[in-house]
Amino acid sequence: MDLAQLWFWIVAFLFVGYFVLDGFDFGVGMSLPFLGKDDVDKRVLINTIGPVWDLNETWVIVAGASLFAAFPEWYATLFSGFYLALLVILLALIARGVSFEYRHQRPDDQRWKRSFDWMIVIGSAVPALLWGVAFANIVQGVPLDEGHNYIGTFFELLNPYALLGGLTTLLLFFTHGVVFVSLKTEGEIRERARRLAVRSGILTIVVAASFLVWTGLAFGDLWFWILAVVAALALIGSWLANFRGAEGVSFTLGAITIGTAVFALFAALFPAVMPASNDPANSLTIENASSSPYTLEVMSWTALIFLPLVLAYQGWTYWTFRKRVSRSHIEGTEPAEPAPASGT
């Protein structure tokens, strides 16, 4: 395996980290209308991800920076061709982040809070949907000219296969997030989250299985099918574990589901990075999209030094804020709720 191929899989790993970690963030945000019966419930939900949501989002920044440095041609084609979809994702993430920080600024204004609650819901659902749409289009290929420029339209990206991919990530993240709520809360909200994950998990299994089978039949190879089977078994195991009340096992298996599913998509893509649906000669591959060997070598040494430090820091953060959140923690505080990023 040369350095270009190595960095293809490093980029895959970074997107796995982003989808697993920010995925349950999105799920928690989308669960507000379903689990938040009152303002205290909503504050409990927000505080489950309060200490970590902004840290989780840094994974997409690192993934994008790595893509830019390791595969500049891929980055240029992707961000120019999908600019509208990616702009919508960016705006949704901004609205979501602002809502976490501003929702508590007027503790007695319920209309103010409801507005930001819906911004959290929409800001979580839109990226969860569009990331799946984007990756599904990358796997199936898009029309490119000889200069590797996208020559389609935004609405061509909203094809049946891509929309099914978007619905799959939406449901996966939602169920993953609801299981996280049951893992991080106590009392009635914990039970409601577990029951909701049971119901949403059934729909998630059906939709995800449909997408994986479609992908495998159209683009898959042996490695894709191996990873897809692992993802399917992990998803079913996650549902069964949640049904039996084993939230920790369910959440772990849900993370494995998302991780192996993302690796399966990259396996279906390999060795291309952006297939051209109109003419295979216009496709971007690992070889013609990567940076120079010297650049990749410098990046490899940098990743070897700093990536373990980042992982260690994130692991320490999750360990520090591992305790469950309950209504009593909220009801016993001052009327103004704490800023989510503070971890209270």
From TrEMBL:
GO terms, biological process: aerobic electron transport chain
Transmembrane residue ranges: 6-32, 74-95, 116-140, 160-184, 196-216, 222-241, 253-274, 298-319
Keywords recorded for this protein, A-Z: Cell membrane, Electron transport, Heme, Iron, Membrane, Metal-binding, Transmembrane, Transmembrane helix, Transport
Subcellular location: Cell membrane
GO molecular function: electron transfer activity; metal ion binding; oxidoreductase activity, acting on diphenols and related substances as donors, oxygen as acceptor
NCBIfam families to which the protein is assigned, alphabetical: cydB (TIGR00203)
Name of protein: Cytochrome d ubiquinol oxidase subunit II
Species annotation: Agromyces archimandritae
Primary gene name: cydB
